[in-house]
Amino acid sequence: MKLYDGGRAPNPRRVRVFLAEKGIEVPLVPVDMGAMGHRDEEVASRNPLRRLPVLELDDGTIITESVAICRYFEELHPEPPLFGTGAVGRAQVEMWQRRMELNFLSAIAAAFRHLHPAMKEWEVPQVAEWGEANKPKALEFLALLDRELASREFIAGDSYSIADITGLIAIDFMKPARLAVPEELGNVRRWYDAVAARPSAKA
Amino acid sequence: MKLYDGGRAPNPRRVRVFLAEKGIEVPLVPVDMGAMGHRDEEVASRNPLRRLPVLELDDGTIITESVAICRYFEELHPEPPLFGTGAVGRAQVEMWQRRMELNFLSAIAAAFRHLHPAMKEWEVPQVAEWGEANKPKALEFLALLDRELASREFIAGDSYSIADITGLIAIDFMKPARLAVPEELGNVRRWYDAVAARPSAKA
User: Fold this and answer.
1) Which of 68-107 (B) contact A at CB < 8 A?
2) What residues does the GST C-terminal domain cover (chains A, B) (predicted)?
């Protein structure tokens, strides 16, 4: 198998952090997203949405969407479980993974894509008012997360999970989106320092 | 257990269609979203994001996020499988469920929430330019889906899955968003007619 990878972009990194936590090595095919390499035929013939990452299995089967790729590897290599354990535990991880993605990562991505000058060719049309509207949404969600993290170590419970990976890549994506974690959110800062210190965060 | 339900809104309906396909009956607690009932304490104390649906288990455990609720019921009642079979099959369903949700349902929702006068209090601020920008995104995705459906019966393969449920509720959400499936997309129309004719679509 091989993984068409997109460097620093959040979704490709989400899969690399996941693989690092599992201790899985997959041959990477680097694609230069800065040079719009993800819109070339090499990617487009594998993913009609022209997005990365893309996993290609040995029989040619294509799996796109970072969380679908992670879930595939979770089935091949169940340990350590990163999608939760037991029916309730797995539902809680799914709930938090979705909350982190749909309410937080997507707000940061909107602020970045609709406001950053470098995104002019990527996000057509850029709607600056929408980018601005997402900044308070991202910060409001972080305040909610801070209250949640007062009573537990990780986002979806007592174990590290894919919800923490989505949180990590989202927080690191705040900088290019010109956002910062407010000083007073001590629980978020404690959690972030812990997940960012894991070796997988370098992936 | 009980399911706090939100009537006609797409996400509550997604769970009801899923339960109907499984033949599962869960006691429903109706919440009047038109009267902003989802922002009342009854919901807010269970879901800090104040969204529906919300599943409450007998021990008080809360599961929110429609897909997390569906996944929980998939584990309790595996037949018929609606999240795919086998590691590759399940990854393909996850891939398509996400594509349908992130590229199609979310575009229709944005057009509805940012342009419909009734959404003024729900979506603050309404950004009309963003609503308009999403209309061609939704239609572009439908054209891609039409090409995909030329070679298979259902969205994620030869079996009905949660990706079809997300597709069904998204298409039905086009009407209030003032969008329509273009006449020439015959494969999408054939697929829609088939899934809309299933008894579960009435849920």
Assistant:
1) 68-69, 71-72, 75-76, 87-88, 90-92, 94-95, 98-99, 103
2) 86-203
- Spatial separation of the C-alpha atoms in residues A113 and A126, rounded to whole Å: 7
Domains B2-76 and B86-202 share a fold: no
Nearest CA in chain B to A61: B88
Determine the Cα–Cα distance for residues A171 and A188; give it in Å rounded to an integer.
10
What's the confidence (pLDDT) of residue B144? 98
Sorted by where each begins, the domain ranges of chain A are 2-76, 86-202
Checking A191-194 for CB contacts under 8 A at 24+ apart, the result is A191/A149, A191/A153, A191/A154, A191/A155, A191/A164, A191/A167, A192/A167, A192/A168, A194/A153
- Res A103 pLDDT > 90: yes
CB A14 within 8 Å of CB A169: yes
Q: Which CATH class is domain A2-76?
A: alpha beta
Torsion (CA) B151, B153, B156, B162 in degrees, nearest 10: 160
Closest CA to B166 of B6, B7, B4, B13: B13
Residues of chain B with pLDDT under 70: none
C-beta of residue A99 within 8 angstroms of C-beta of residue A142: no
Q: So what's the architecture of B86-202 in CATH?
A: Up-down Bundle (1.20)
- What are the helix (H) ranges across chain A? 10-22, 41-44, 66-76, 86-99, 106-115, 128-148, 162-172, 186-196
User: How does strand A28-30 pair with strand A2-5?
Assistant: parallel
Please report the ipTM that was assigned to this predicted complex: 0.96
Question: What pLDDT does residue B149 have?
Answer: 98
